[in-house]
Amino acid sequence: MRLSLLALALVFALILGIGLGPYPLSPGQIFNALTGGLTGGLTGGLTGAGDDRQAQVVLWNIRGPRVISAALIGAGLAAAGAAYQVVFRNPLVSPDILGVSAGAGFGAVLGILLGLPVMAIQLMGFGFGLATVALVIGLTLALRGGAQLLVMVLCGIVIGALAGAGISLVKLLADPDEQLPAITFWLMGSLAGVKRVDLLAAAPAVILGLVPLIALRWRIGLLAMGDDEARAMGIEAGRLRFVVIAAATLITAAAVALAGVIGWIGLMVPHMARLVAGPRFDRMLPAALLAGASFMVLVDTAARMIAPMEVPLGILTAVLGAPVFVILLARGARAWNG
Known about the structure:
It contains 15 helices and no strands.
């Protein structure tokens, strides 16, 4: 029942996100544009005339890719945050715990400094995000000869700090008239420039990361009980933990490469889902996916509607996330311990 309500909320958010804008679309126009332009929209050759064709252009080329990207990023970051919190057994862990966001951000701003095209910038962000995690895992193994969680987290903080220093250096070297504003705006997060080709490039990585989290959600939930208890139930805790971290990292790197650094989603939404579905990971994960997608679509819609100039997503998620997270912490301690 609760998941059904979350699914309805997501449908409402999607309709709202597609319908609101300089060229508003009613639910009927969205349905007609969706069904009438389905074949043509997928192949890039929209059909129809007048208002119908304009509605199809808005749906398939402008708001559709943007709204779906927002839903994908929200669902992905929420799932990654939930997975990290279970793996590290810490409700305050977020997807950037291993320096993924900082590493991907460094790769992207370096691409902007080098004057690369948008697709290359996104690829550099994605590649540097993955490289950051590989470096963290390699450093952890070198220091302790095993993937101890505390050492891994500390290594992530160190590598993330180095990536942050790299971002500061790139901003210092950037052209203050053109490159520096672009870098600053990108680091605050935005979906303004997302096109259908960007969505098609990032979606496989996010989905590829979500598949093991969804398929192994019952086993992942056992990690919250501790390694000894998980092994007693036949779970290879170390191997499963590596799979979960790799999947969550892949999702985070793809999201950062697509829309910049967007905080709070992976920290706040899992707590919201935990209040709705309870602490069991197999029940909480679907709620986190739906809630994260809805929240991100609504935030992105607000970002382009509340002011003449689009508000960066990172600002809105921080403004909304901080007080909501405090409220959730005050109400949710019992649910987390449940």
